[in-house]
Design a protein that fits this description.
The chain is mainly α. It has 3 domains: about 80 residues, no CATH class; about 150 residues, Rossmann fold; about 120 residues, no CATH class. It is built from 16 helices and 7 strands. The strands form 3 sheets. Strands 1-2-3 form a 3-stranded antiparallel β-sheet. The chain has a two-stranded parallel ribbon with strand order 4-5. A two-stranded antiparallel ribbon has the order 6-7. Helix 2 crosses helix 3 and helix 10 runs antiparallel to helix 11. It starts with a helix and ends with a helix. The relative contact order is 0.05.
Length: about 400
């Protein structure tokens, strides 16, 4: 019997504070093993100690099972992550050689990123320098190198320039107009790149702050771009429309006006003289305007229409002959009378006679009289037929370019 009693081991402490049923089981185990040697006392001991021992062990077993289940729930997600990490670590070990090679390639790429970017930029740089050379006209600032520097969020464009052959930073030596021209030189190559899906370019007021010579260069650039795409330019500056009237330039000019209620009206305005003559015709046709007002206003409008056409013709012929814009404008300003300006348009000489041209068609002399003497002394009985005479003279003068 004693051997049977000693077959139950003494429950030892596990040191787990969460197993609160363990001390009672330890005590029950100690009591069970402390059986007396007397047979009668032993029988009483077994009856008294067995049930408390069974209950204490069952309580420990139940509590331990619950603690094990709780800890399993906590450990299971970590075990899955650990399994995944172990698999990834094993895979990384198998591919360590490739990782080393990729790291080396990435290091090389970072070290040579600027050079690679500038190689891709090279075609655009050449185009930008060509556009700048066309735009700058009389500027002594030449564009040298265009580079992309930096990386990540510190990327920037570095521009080198030459001023009279001396190298300098571009931004520090350029005027506002030159900076606008430079911005166009950088933008247009990207917009007109062969890989661009758009076959048009829209520019909003691009000639602001440009001097007149750069406007001429800008028109040349537009003419090159328009060979294989549509170019739309919005501008309030009359210098652009004036520059477009050079011969050989195919363009359309529209005047856009916004009236009451934001009603937009669009009309052809390629020839500014038409606007003056349209206004004069409307004046002559309006029965509510006093005759005295008509006789004073209409000749002035007619003269502006004729002089504008003369300027168009003279400028076109002068530019075709290779004269500079300054030379053209100086010659025009030096001609102070209508006769001299017509002589410039017809013969490029303000002193040349124009009588043969006036007499070649009867309405030309009538138009000249209205636009010349009529402006100074006024006329009598101005009507639409007089305006049409000037319109015919304008048409004939424009036709002399062909």
């Amino acid at each position: 019997m004693q051997e049977l009693i000693r077959s139950v081991p003494l429950i030892s402490p596990l040191g787990d504070p969460e197993l609160t049923a363990l001390p009672a089981a330890q005590q029950a185990s100690t009591t069970w093993l402390g059986a007396p040697t007397d047979n009668l006392l032993l029988a009483d001991h077994l009856v008294a100690a067995r049930q408390p021992l069974d209950d204490a062990v069952a309580a420990v077993r139940s509590q331990a099972a619950q603690l094990l289940a709780d800890r399993e729930d906590q450990w299971a997600p970590l075990a899955l992550k650990l399994r995944d990490w172990t698999s990834a670590q094993k895979l990384a070990g198998e591919n360590s050689a490739k990782v080393t090679e990729l790291t080396s390639a990435l290091t090389w790429l970072k070290n040579n990123a600027a050079q690679l970017r500038n190689q891709r930029l090279a075609p655009l740089v050449d185009r930008a320098r060509h556009i700048w050379a066309t735009l700058r006209q009389e500027s002594n600032v030449g564009l040298d190198a265009i580079r992309l520097e930096g990386e990540a969020t510190r990327r920037r464009v570095e521009l080198d320039a030459e001023v009279d052959g001396v190298k300098a930073g571009a931004f520090g030596v350029m005027s506002q107009g030159e900076l606008h021209a430079l911005a166009l030189a950088l933008f247009l190559p990207r917009a007109a790149a062969p890989e661009s899906p758009f076959r048009f370019i829209v520019l909003d007021d691009p000639i602001q702050a440009m001097d007149p010579s750069k406007v001429e260069g800008f028109v040349t650039v537009l003419q090159e771009l328009a060979v294989d795409r549509q170019v739309i330019v919005l501008s309030h500056d009359d210098r652009l429309s004036a520059a477009v009237h050079r011969p050989g330039i195919k363009a359309q000019i529209f005047e856009v006006t916004r009236g009451t209620g934001s009603t937009v009206a669009i009309k052809d305005a390629f020839h500014p003289s038409s606007r003056y003559l349209d206004d004069a015709f409307a004046f002559a046709k309006d029965v509510n305007i006093p005759a005295e007002a008509k006789n004073r206003v209409i000749p002035g409008l007619c003269r502006m229409g004729l002089e504008t056409t003369a300027h168009e013709v003279f400028s076109a012929r002068s530019y075709s002959a290779g004269l500079s814009r300054d030379a053209v404008e100086d010659s025009w300003d030096d001609a102070s009378t209508l006769r001299q300006r017509l002589a410039l348009a017809l013969h490029a000489d303000k002193s040349a006679p124009i009588e043969s041209w006036l007499k070649a068609a009867p309405r030309r002399s009538v138009a000249f009289g209205i636009c010349n003497g009529g402006v100074h002394r006024g006329t009598t009985e101005m009507d639409t037929d007089d305006v049409n005479a000037v319109r015919t003279a304008v048409k004939d003068l424009r036709a002399s370019l062909k």
